[in-house]
Write a structure and sequence with these properties.
binds flavin-adenine dinucleotide, 13 helices, Alpha-Beta Plaits, alpha+beta, 401 residues, three-stranded antiparallel beta sheet, binds iron/sulfur cluster
Length: 401
């Protein structure tokens, strides 16, 4: 039976909950805002299935991709509407066109991030774009299984640990299943996201209690000023008045906390599925550093990094109509270390969560600012200390004369 001793030993993939024959595992949110399994011992029959499907307990060996590409969707509008080069949409469209089903992460009515599926091209719009919040998987793996058994083609997309959890949950290979994971920095807390949204709306609205229902659109990766200068954009209404946020990603409070690893899921600092251990057919990311490595593929509107990991992925990829240039894994890795390495935990993470989080925005500002201050101090120390040593040595020599 599954027991979580260390928080970092659960990535929240929900595989155990969905496999349990007694349905006696509940996912409960902890004080940091992440879901963890809790077993009802009175119902458990000790069958051990929950442990067999856990991607943290059953990790695969690291792999290297079969081929690596820099690629762009040839539909300019879709590429601009996507976070990277719009590769997710082109692959998802090909699955829908074959009568298939596509699973991905979308915002629900309360602007929480959840996994869902679509059987139409229009339905793919909701999955487009990166949402920097952990998505709630819910019952998606059981739905995937039902579609696979009907003989439908299924594309499941998500984080590497979600793909690893799905594959273990299914317990056998299905010819009609294709999986795509993203290169994954880590996922921020859904609780911090909820609080950030509520507090932002309150201040935008000068206390009139605008609710999430008044938000029209949220884009973590708006490209109006370019792919590399991406912005966090929120648009909404307070009565008839337009309200919104439009800030560089590095300056928005929520995304700054994300970049400084202040409230990532603990498992993200010890990721069980990096190095292509997820078993996915294709991995998608941003081709960071492309301006130096493949400048002809760089137009600052988004270029995807595509790692093709299996023969099934290779067959699908070779039939897509897109702009694609083959490159080496080494070149791709040089701009994107999160493919292999987990990010470090912020030294302020514990202090942040131990603080009173009734209001998160001032606390995120406090603990991210402190990090910058200490970095500046460290930097100044690096410059000042050698100068101090030189002056000290000169003074000693002068005194000895
Ligand atoms: C939390 C997170 C961290 C990331 N970290 C990196 C990184 O360090 N380096 C890097 O190169 N790329 C990273 N990416 C991936 C990158 O931002 C793009 O999502 C990816 O390149 C696909 O882009 P696209 O243009 O093909 O499709 P898009 O349309 O931009 O992306 C849509 C795809 O992303 C999936 N997705 C969106 N949000 C989530 C979510 N919260 N959980 C699971 N799946 C989601 C959708 O299901 C869909 O498959 C990250 C994405 C997320 C969500
Ligand atoms: S051991 Fe079996 S019954 Fe008990 S929680 Fe795990 S899956 Fe459910
Ligand atoms: S990683 Fe997934 S399967 Fe393992 S305990 Fe957590 S939710 Fe359950
Ligand atoms: S960093 Fe690893 S554990 Fe965290 S969400 Fe991504 S794949 Fe899962």
């Amino acid at each position: 039976m599954i027991t979580i001793k260390e928080k970092s030993d659960c990535c929240g993939c929900n595989a155990c909950t969905q496999v349990c024959p007694k349905q006696c595992i509940n996912m409960i949110e902890d004080k940091e805002g992440f879901l963890y399994p809790h077993v009802d011992l009175t119902e458990c029959i000790d069958c051990g299935l929950c442990e067999k499907v856990c991607p943290v307990i059953n990790q695969n060996h690291p792999r290297k991709p079969l081929g690596v590409y820099a690629a762009k969707n040839t539909n300019e509008q879709i590429r601009l509407d996507s976070s990277s080069g719009g590769l997710f949409t082109i692959i998802a469209q090909s699955i829908i066109n074959q009568g298939g089903v596509v699973f991905g992460a979308k915002f629900n009515d309360s602007w929480a991030v959840v996994h869902d599926y679509s059987e139409t091209i229009e339905g793919l719009v909701a999955f487009r774009k990166s949402k920097y919040v952990q998505s709630i998987i819910g019952n998606s793996f059981n739905k995937v299984l039902a579609f696979l058994k009907e003989g439908r083609k299924v594309l499941f997309t998500g984080t590497p640990c979600q793909i690893a959890g799905l594959k273990l949950f299914l317990r056998k290979e299905y010819e009609n299943l294709l999986t795509i994971d993203i290169v994954c920095h880590g996922v921020p807390s859904p609780l911090v996201w909820r609080k950030y949204l509520a507090e932002s709306l309150l201040s935008l609205d000068q206390g009139k209690k605008t609710s999430c229902a008044n938000i029209n659109d949220i884009n973590f990766r708006n490209k109006d000023k370019g792919w590399k200068s991406f912005r966090f954009v929120l648009n909404g209404l307070s009565g008839n008045k337009k309200i919104g946020i439009n800030q560089p990603f590095s300056q928005n409070v929520f995304t700054k906390g994300f970049l400084q690893n202040l409230y990532l899921r603990p498992s993200c600092h010890k990721c069980p599925a990096k190095k292509f251990k997820s078993g996915s057919d294709i991995t998608l990311g941003d081709f960071w550093g492309i301006e130096n490595t493949l400048p002809k593929m760089n137009d600052d509107r988004g270029t995807s990094l595509v790692a093709v990991n299996t023969i099934k992925g290779e067959v699908l990829y070779s039939n897509l109509a897109l702009t694609s240039v083959k490159t080496s894994y080494k070149v791709a890795l040089s701009g994107n270390p999160p493919m292999e390495v987990s990010v470090n935990v912020s030294k302020n993470r514990d202090r942040f969560y131990d603080d009173n989080l009734d209001y998160v925005i001032p606390k995120i500002k406090k603990y991210t600012k402190e990090i910058w201050q200490s970095r500046i101090k460290r930097y100044l120390f690096k410059i000042a200390y050698p100068i101090y040593r030189i002056i000290k040595n000169i003074a000693i020599k002068l005194l000895k004369r």
